[in-house]
Amino acid sequence: MDEMCAALAKSALNSIERKLDKGFITNAHKIGTVLNPASRHLRGIPSFEKEGIYNLIRARIQPTTSQTQQERNLLSMEASDESTDELSNYMHSKFSGITESDFDLLNFWQTHKLQYPQMYVLALKYLSIPATSASAERSFSTLKRTITDQRTRLDPALVGKMIIGRSIGEFD
Q1: With 0-12 CB in 10 A as exposed, 13-18 as middle and 19+ as buried, what is 50?
Q2: pLDDT of residue 9
Q3: Cα separation of 22 and 78, whole Å?
């Protein structure tokens, strides 16, 4: 059983490497992975890669509007002090229920937006990115089946209504 698990893990890592090489996994995907508290530690990723991803996040964190320029200067001089680093605080926190099947990621960030305001802003931005393009590809396939060589003069508004109707099951 252990050999099988090791083979599956190796296969998964090889698959991820191929996706990285082809550019299918972007910085946005990496940031989104960290924004999920269950996967934020990036287990199985080499330390130097983890640090690179964490630095991507730190570069995108904006100072809150309540910080004065003097406070920002002090924070930048004390960047190694984990108490001033919101990402480090998030990484070292313990959260309950994050591995449960009914875990709600959006509710998690809504609940923790005051504790991690800068991370919350990133979550709003990066967690809205679809994980795959499958939904869009299905829509284009439906569109291709709707507008055929015999139906090239359909009114665009009617086509839109037909596509929406198909997506909610009215025209199956």
Answers
A1: middle
A2: 66
A3: 38
User: What is the pLDDT, as a whole number, of residue 32?
Assistant: 87
Give yes or no for a contact between 159 and 144, defined as CB atoms under 8 angstroms apart.
no
Closest CA to 50 of 61, 58, 42: 42
CA–CA dist 89, 22 (Å, integer): 33
Instruction: Give the pair of three-digit tokens for residue 171.
Output: 């025209």
Alpha helices by DSSP H, the chain: 2-22, 27-34, 47-60, 69-77, 86-92, 105-111, 117-126, 134-146, 156-167
Name the amino acid, one letter, at 73.
N
Q: What is the number of alpha carbons within 13 Å of residue 104 lying toward its C-beta?
A: 5
In the Cβ-directed half-sphere of 157, how many Cα atoms lie within 13 Å? Answer: 0
Calpha distance 131→143 (Å, rounded): 22
3-class SS at 86? helix
Long-range contacts of 137-141 (CB under 8 A, 24+ apart): 139/163, 139/167
Matching residue, tokens 């200067």: 73
In 3-state terms, what secondary structure has residue 32? Answer: helix
CA atoms within 13 A on the CB side of 161: 5
- pTM value > 0.85: no
pLDDT in tens, 22-56: 766 788 888 888 999 999 998 888 888 889 999 99
| pLDDT for position 80 | 45
